[in-house]
Amino acid sequence: MTRSNNPFAGLSPTKKPDYPLQAPPAYTATAPPQSGDDYLAALSSPARSPSPAPSNAGSVISDSGMSVSTPEDRYAFLSSFDTIFVVDDSGSMSGRSWPEVENVLNAVTPICTSHDDDGVDLYFLNHKTPDGGNIKTGKAGGGYYGIRRAETVHEIFTTVRPRGGTPTGQRLHSILRPYLQLLEQRKGDFESVKPINIIVITDGAPSDDVESTIISAAKKLVRLDAPMHQVGVQFFQVGNEPGAREALRELDDDLGDRVNGDLRDMVDTVTWEHGARGVLTADSILKVVLGAVVRRLDRRRTSGESRR
């Protein structure tokens, strides 16, 4: 039986994550207010009815009537998306930032795999594995695929050492290119291609052109008439480098201006304010990704996108 990969055509049943979630730190998301904050607030609110009957209070529901998020399972959407991590391994990441990122991935991997047996994929900006990827499945080369255990994350981080620059644009291009080619081949059958969320964790400003990579991908998604939720890119800052904060803000706020405002919104960023150095957690990352998914769901509805 062929399984649909469209989260809005019907989500698969998911089980409650068996990994304890940490309370998120104070952070500032530079995404616009409609990025899902209202939905996230609803998730923490108890159902008002005392009835023991099932309730949709605090739930985010797709057009098909299936749950994207519920009070019992905030991250149900993970079963319908492939999660890809891109980690900055430039020289500036050595020190406190490196174990911090490892700890986040150690925590988030079991949450993702409790919803999706595919596991998570992991790429670094500089370090590349000999694996050539798989063009038939839209997988770029040079990464680690189907990671299901925190122990695997630890093993990887003990072999990779931060060095070099911050070629964020180049790495994103290499990841997006085979996936967009797959979408082009499957045009008219997007349900057979699982949507992706690319989570980029970095401490510095890119040393290359990230904007052009994102603009090119967004334009291609529009040409293909791909669903609004098909590709999401979320940038998270570690450390407190002001240059990184400004660079990430520009990615979120200024891209539309470069193309006269006519650009598909597929980017969200989280930065630290006023030199503060917060600590990323699995929960804080997944809340932002959930907010991005919910916002794109809303844009799909308001734009009149047909159900796929």
Summarize the structure.
By secondary structure, this protein is of the alpha/beta class. 34% of the residues lie in helices and 13% in strands. The longest helix is centred in the C-terminal third of the chain and has 21 residues, at 282-302.
Instruction: Indicate the low-confidence ranges by residue numbers.
Output: 7-57, 61-66, 301-308
Mean pLDDT over the residues: 77
CATH architectural designation of the domain at 81-290: 3-Layer(aba) Sandwich
- The percent range for helix content is 25-40%
Characterize the main sheet.
7 strands, mixed
In the CATH scheme, the class of the domain at 81-290 would be Alpha Beta
What does this structure look like?
By secondary structure, the chain is of the alpha/beta class. A hairpin with a 5-residue loop joins β2 and β3. The C terminus is likely disordered. The strands form 2 sheets. It has a 7-stranded mixed sheet, sandwiched between helices. A two-stranded antiparallel ribbon has the order 2-3. It contains 8 helices and 9 strands. It has a domain of 210 residues: 3-Layer(aba) Sandwich (Rossmann fold). InterPro entries: VWF_A, vWFA_dom_sf. It holds the Pfam family VWA. This is VWFA domain-containing protein.
